[in-house]
Design goal:
By secondary structure, the protein is mostly helical. The relative contact order is 0.15. It binds fe (ii) ion (FE2).
């Protein structure tokens, strides 16, 4: 849905959407791989991976915040609407990850670390 939504935004600008590698996200993914390497089989791995996933969400939230503002500044209300929807979804995902970490992952990692 995100891809489709972004394609609509590009259409509004009269541009063709195309994929591009993001060094920041690649770096966060590499951090996740390091977490797996360091904590494989331990509860800390799940807590760490949740934090890495949240780092991705926070990056996406930052980008969508900026793009939403720019679309508004340019008077592109339709594009802004799509971007606000994406921003809301990213925020929900971040909140769900926080809830998961707080409800179980962090406590499990803490108990395992205290042993
Ligand atoms: Fe996301």
């Amino acid at each position: 849905m995100h891809v489709e939504r972004l394609q609509h935004v590009f259409e509004i600008f009269g541009k063709r959407a195309q994929g591009k590698t993001c060094d920041a996200i690649e770096g966060i993914i590499a951090q996740g791989e390091k977490i797996i390497e360091d904590f494989k089989g331990q509860p800390a791995m799940d807590a760490g991976l949740a934090s890495a996933a949240q780092a991705v969400e926070h990056y996406e939230i930052a980008r969508y915040c900026t793009l939403t503002r720019w679309a508004g500044d340019l008077g592109l209300k339709d594009a802004q609407k799509f971007l606000i929807t994406a921003l809301q979804e990213e925020t929900k995902t971040d909140e769900a990850l926080t809830a998961l970490a707080e409800a179980s992952l962090n406590a499990a990692a803490k108990v395992a670390t205290a042993r």
